[in-house]
Sequence to fold (411 residues):
Amino acid sequence: MAAAVRGRERRVLVLLVVPLLVLAVACGGGGDGGSGEAGTRTAAARPLDLAFRHPGVLVSGAQLKRVRAHVEAKEQPWLAAFEQMRGSKYAADDYQATPYAVVECPPDTRPGRGCVEEREDALAAYTQALLWNITGERAHAEKAVQIMDAWAKVITGHTEANAGLQTAWAASSWARAAEAVRYTYDGWNDGQLLRFERMLRNAYLPQVRDGSADSNGNWDLVMADATMGMAVFLDDHATFEKAVHHFRTRVPAYFYLESDGKLPVSPEGSGIDTAAELKKYWFGQGTFADGLSQETCRNFKHASYSLAATAHMAETAHHQGVDLYGEVEDRLRAAFEFHSKYQLGAEAPDWLCGGKVQRDMGPDTEVGLNHLRGRLKLAMPQTEKYTEQRRPEGTDDLFVAWETLTHAGNT
Fold:
């Protein structure tokens, strides 16, 4: 009950502070939050003392209520998406966590320890948290807490070369699960809650907070996604601002726009900046077009991970009053349309990856489509067609889950 009381106190603080922020913005206050692109809105800086809005990691409280109403009314595509989620292994009433003290994820064919189990348990906690919010059945909230507490009691860290990516995948789901439970359920006791917070601070944040500038961009973006989610849950303003900075520097270095010049933007801190270095980093691509990503010529799967992570961060920031979407609106729209077009079967021209692309996008388009098409009413015919063909979008079993349910038409 103490956790619920704290949640209510924070919500009261938000109600008191947010109108003042709105008034300040209306009067021209707030300053410039970053260099916006041509044709887009520039976000105002978020005051460091402004209380975070909870629930507010990827899915807001209002969005959760709308999902519940859609499902109760048996409306599509939400009912089909809910049934898909409810029928998954993650929704099992008897789901049991398998925690590891140290999760070891090598980059080669050597077997790992705890990698699949950690990702799946985090997704199960998030699934159970959504089930609780939609059905009102306390057993699902209890199961989510049980899973999170099982890991919080045991894990100390991550090792091997894939530690950063693994940590980010799992932490993204942990933060969403925890946020959706903490502010809607009164049964997560103080001891369990504090143990889980310590887990995030000690076993997850240090691994992802600084990113990985020299890695492929999907690493850096999902690490920033995880960092932002944990920052909101932990009410950590400095870490939130660090994730915002990471978004502002990495997204333009991953998705190309003609306004960048003849060459893509170099990732901050990477030292990759000559034409030859950038071409190698972009998997041999030497011709650039609006929407192309650093990993397009590797495969669409990794580009799709990055589309999802970028949209996740922008959505979480949107719930916290920061318009990161507006800063990359043209870039993100172009990237969704570019990849959806070729994923749908358009023939790749010779200048694009030598005329051969690997079409393996995942369930990664709902969040971005909901904002760009749903909120902003921008034309996105390729993304819309691709998304509607895939609905309900389920889970990639890594860090994306049930986004038709949570974000289809959920403005």
